[in-house]
Amino acid sequence: MKSITIKGSERESVGKAATRAARNAGMVPCVLYGGDQPVHFTAEEKAFKNLVYTPNVHTVVIDLNGKTYNAILQDIQFHPVSDKILHMDFYQLHDDKEITMEVPVKVIGNSKGVMAGGVLRLNQRKLKVRALPTNLPDFVEADITNLEMGNKLYVTEVPSDNFKLLHPDNTVVAQVRISRAAMKAAQEAAKAAKEATKKKK
């Protein structure tokens, strides 16, 4: 999985006044969990742009004055009106400990059903995976090539070599639905066939 580096500074004071002062200065108060003890730090709001405002997922290297931590974003709080980032929680990664996170689904292939006039519906835009940090995928591939009209692609048909997919076996990742136009064409064809049969009689 791709990584983004966030440069910040450790916070010595974590009270309300210090937090307010940090936000007023354009900084985001953050906490890193998962180590021996929580690490409080701040970083510029613009530093999180490529982490937060993207459909992709990344691991994070938190650089606090030269001391680095590998982590993932665990929680984020936005201001209800301005949508400014108010607070962020990170979780430290350890090479020998599995981690759970959601990654995007990437559709590949050309569905036979779509080419025949069906409509592709992506039921799961993200899937929850569990893996060691080095095995976390950037995305999960959903191959729709063999989907005929009316078919569904289940999570059990999605390859997961170095990671586990944490979903029930009956979870539908994608499906090809019959479009209204295709349904109408099928009904008209059936009607025409029925009338042709009547004429023959």
Quick description:
The chain is of the alpha+beta class and 201 residues long.
Rg is: 25 Å
Helix content: 10-25%
| Biggest pleated sheet | 6 strands, mixed, barrel
Order of helices and strands: EHEEHEEEEHEEEEEEH
Q: Distance N terminus to C terminus? A: 67 Å
Report the total helices.
4
Strand segment tally: 13
Family: Belongs to the bacterial ribosomal protein bL25 family. CTC subfamily.
Pfam families: Ribosomal_L25p, Ribosomal_TL5_C
Keywords: Ribonucleoprotein, Ribosomal protein, RNA-binding, rRNA-binding
Function: This is one of the proteins that binds to the 5S RNA in the ribosome where it forms part of the central protuberance.
Notes on the structure:
The strands form three sheets. Strands 1-3-2-6-5-4 form a six-stranded mixed β-barrel. The radius of gyration is 25 Å and the shape is elongated. Helices cover 19% and strands 41% of the residues. Strand 2 and strand 3 form a beta hairpin. With 201 residues, the chain is an alpha+beta fold. The longest helix is centred in the C-terminal third of the chain and has 21 residues. This is one of the proteins that binds to the 5S RNA in the ribosome where it forms part of the central protuberance. Belongs to the bacterial ribosomal protein bL25 family. CTC subfamily. This is Large ribosomal subunit protein bL25. Part of the 50S ribosomal subunit; part of the 5S rRNA/L5/L18/L25 subcomplex. Contacts the 5S rRNA. Binds to the 5S rRNA independently of L5 and L18.
Topology at a glance:
Layout: E1 3-10, H1 16-24, E2 27-33, E3 39-44, H2 49-52, E4 59-64, E5 67-78, E6 85-92, E7 99-108, H3 112-115, E8 119-122, E9 126-131, E10 140-143, E11 152-154, E12 164-165, E13 172-177, H4 180-200
